[in-house]
């Protein structure tokens, strides 16, 4: 999979992708990342990429042509079809399901805006999807793009030490992840649940499933409401609720 990122601060994207899981995925050839400096495609002595908004108002708006020419150059750099995402607080919320869908695509191009916004004509005609990482406003799209690069990088087969790690993550099956513990088993802050040291793999699986259901019910009840729970899941969740009320 190849990801291209169009930005006024491409060095930020490159540096953030050098470490951890994403860096390992790139070094192993599981993920290809290229960044593009939008300003390289601006004209004039000052290579301006923004101008005052029509109708007045604060801030500056990124112009169409530098963005479009940068996008065209990125498209031409690889023959595979590219799906273009624009980082925007007005976009659809990012989700694990959407990340899984994008991870099956051969190429993604992420466009990072700055200033007050981007000329709407570019968004309407050159972008396939707008995506938001939350209901708040950042100074630019670079942080959002870095989030997407990281989340996609860890989904590449071979990027993680254990492929089960990604499949057990929160949201993979619509639930939050269960609690995790490590040594020491006894500590002044508490003890590890006995079942986890029992060696009974079936009991451990049931406990983890129940904890995932219960944690989701406590912290994200909206997710529980969207799921079609099996009879066993309902039994486990009812038992969790009963214990929580004691």
Automatic annotation (TrEMBL):
Catalytic activity: guanosine(37) in tRNA + S-adenosyl-L-methionine = N(1)-methylguanosine(37) in tRNA + S-adenosyl-L-homocysteine + H(+)
Swiss-Prot/TrEMBL keywords: Cytoplasm, Methyltransferase, S-adenosyl-L-methionine, Transferase, tRNA processing
EC number: 2.1.1.228
GO MF term (any one): tRNA (guanine(37)-N1)-methyltransferase activity
Gene3D superfamilies given in the database record: 3.40.1280.10, tRNA(m1g37)methyltransferase, domain 2 (1.10.1270.20)
Function, in words: Specifically methylates guanosine-37 in various tRNAs.
UniProt name for this protein: tRNA (guanine-N(1)-)-methyltransferase
Record PANTHER family: TRNA (GUANINE-N(1)-)-METHYLTRANSFERASE
Name of the gene encoding the protein in the UniProt record: trmD
Quaternary state and interactors: Homodimer.
Class in the EC hierarchy, top level: transferase
GO biological process per UniProt: methylation
Binding site for S-adenosyl-L-methionine: 113, 133-138
InterPro entries, per database record: Alpha/beta_knot_MTases, tRNA_m1G_MeTrfase_C_sf, tRNA_m1G_MeTrfase_TrmD, tRNA_m1G_MTases_N, tRNA_MeTrfase_TRMD/TRM10
Family under the similarity heading: Belongs to the RNA methyltransferase TrmD family.
Compartmental location: Cytoplasm
């Amino acid at each position: 999979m190849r990801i291209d990122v169009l930005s006024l601060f491409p060095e930020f994207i490159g540096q953030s992708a050098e470490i951890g899981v994403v860096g390992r995925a790139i070094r192993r050839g599981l993920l290809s990342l290229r960044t593009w400096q939008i300003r390289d495609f601006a004209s004039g002595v000052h290579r301006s990429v923004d101008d005052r908004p029509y109708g007045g108002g604060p801030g500056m708006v990124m112009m169409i042509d530098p963005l479009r020419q940068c996008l065209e150059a990125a498209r031409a750099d690889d023959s595979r079809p590219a799906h273009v995402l624009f980082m925007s607080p007005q976009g659809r919320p990012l989700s694990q399901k959407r990340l899984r869908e994008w991870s099956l695509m051969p190429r993604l191009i992420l466009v990072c805006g700055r200033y007050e916004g981007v000329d709407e004509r570019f968004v309407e005609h050159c972008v396939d999807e707008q995506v938001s990482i939350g209901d708040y406003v950042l100074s630019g799209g670079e942080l959002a793009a870095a989030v997407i690069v990281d989340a996609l990088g860890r989904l590449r087969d071979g990027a993680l030490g254990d492929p089960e790690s990604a499949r057990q993550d929160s949201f993979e099956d619509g639930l939050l992840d269960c609690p995790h513990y490590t040594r020491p088993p006894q500590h002044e802050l508490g003890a590890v649940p006995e079942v986890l040291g029992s060696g009974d793999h079936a009991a451990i699986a049931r406990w983890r499933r129940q904890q995932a259901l219960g944690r989701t019910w406590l912290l994200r009840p909206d997710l529980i409401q969207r799921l079609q729970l099996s009879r066993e899941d309902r039994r486990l969740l009812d038992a969790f609720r009963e214990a929580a009320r004691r």
